[in-house]
UniProtKB/TrEMBL annotation:
Keyword Transmembrane carried by entry: yes
The keyword Transmembrane is assigned to this record: yes
Source species taxonomy: Bacteria, Bacillati, Bacillota, Bacilli, Bacillales
Record PANTHER family: MEMBRANE PROTEASE YUGP-RELATED
TM ranges: 116-137, 144-165, 199-220
Keywords, comma-separated and alphabetical: Membrane, Transmembrane, Transmembrane helix
Coiled-coil residue windows: none
Protein's UniProt name: Zinc metallopeptidase
A Pfam family the protein falls into: Zn_peptidase_2
Organism: Fredinandcohnia quinoae
Length: 228
């Protein structure tokens, strides 16, 4: 019982810490104005144009840190603060999302793989726990638990593949944001802090997903041994 509580505490605190870290870092550097005076939308447009992505649109979207790139409509969507603001945090986030647009343009392998995994991951997330619980509580349906674990593994794979996609987008963001003159050399360190904090949320999500998958595999193997 104590072991389970410790485990539950760990998987609860990891994503909570990551969220707190990204919010505190974003809040800090959203109050630091970029020397270029460019808004997030202007930074995004400069980087897109420099890479020949004239057809990619930039739109304002509601919400806090709701920024994302939509590959279907070829649109970079920036939350209001980042769209209109001239902070280092806003510039970093805008450049990161444009990094995904550049990945899309260049057919970045991990991005394509992640897109291909979306339907499988969504299906796995929706049905895996139903199958796992059925297999856990009904001995006659033990194989359903294994099937559920397989479906969950597909969802976990999506989380893991997301890591190189996000880190690569941040790497591209740093290169591009300097190249277009959106930040100066002395501002690079602070910009990296924003990008690294955001990346930690994905690391945390993937870590928790992998831990939960391993726990279920151990439970399944233990139950099958006891059945024998």
């Amino acid at each position: 019982m104590i072991t389970f509580l410790v485990y539950f505490l760990i998987i609860s605190l990891i994503p909570l810490y990551a969220q707190m870290k990204v919010k505190s870092t974003y809040k800090k550097y959203s109050q630091v104005q970029a020397s270029s005076g460019l808004t997030g939308a202007q930074v995004a447009r400069r980087i897109l144009d420099q890479n020949g992505l004239y057809d990619v649109r930039i739109e304002e979207t509601p919400g806090f840190l709701s920024d994302h790139y939509d590959p279907r409509s070829k649109t970079v969507r920036l939350s209001s603060n980042n769209y209109h603001g001239t902070s280092l945090a806003g510039s970093a986030v805008a450049a990161h999302e444009v990094g995904h647009a550049i990945q899309d343009q260049q057919d970045y392998a991990f991005l394509r793989f992640r897109h291909a995994l979306v339907p499988v991951a969504n299906f796995g997330s929706n049905v895996s726990w139903i199958l796992i619980l059925a297999g856990m509580f009904f001995t006659a349906f033990r194989d359903l638990m294994l099937l559920g674990i397989i479906f969950m593994a597909a969802a976990v794979l999506f989380q893991v593949v997301t890591l190189p996609v996000e880190f690569n987008a941040s790497s591209r963001a740093m290169q591009q944001i300097v190249s277009v003159g959106a930040i100066r050399n002395e501002e690079e360190h602070e910009t990296k802090k924003v990008l690294n904090a955001a990346a930690m949320t994905y690391v945390a999500a993937a870590s928790v997903a992998v831990l939960e998958l391993l726990r279920l595999i151990l439970i399944y193997t233990g139950m099958t041994r006891s059945d024998d």
